[in-house]
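Kindly inspect this today.
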Amino acid sequence: MADTFTREILEKLKKHAESSEFGRGFKDTEKVAATYYKTGYLRALEFFEDTLNERRQQWEKGPDFAGLYSSAGDFVCTHKLEVVGDVLFGKGWYDNPDQEDTQAIWEICDFVYPHRYMVQCLELGELDIQVTEIGI
């Protein structure tokens, strides 16, 4: 849903930039400057769209972290992310009782796929940490 919303915004901005006259009512030199501005604006929109497409392709190739987990150790073992956890938090971090599981999982998810997942503790029993994909 977030991807569709982002694409709709990009399309509206692109249509607005292509149809508007940034240089209306200005002298010739200012009209030329406005044309360059419009060209730069359209290039920026193309850059955002390319970045969005690149991120979507990376996400399609990678693993899906969505699901229920009992702890941060369960999460990293399930997805074989022990090395990522060790880099972020130090060796043997998931055995530390002071380490908050929800926050650790969220940091690992953001490190691998920035702003893709939301992590929350449902406190329902054994599998109480929920990882949900929120989109691009």
Notes: The chain has a mean pLDDT of 77.
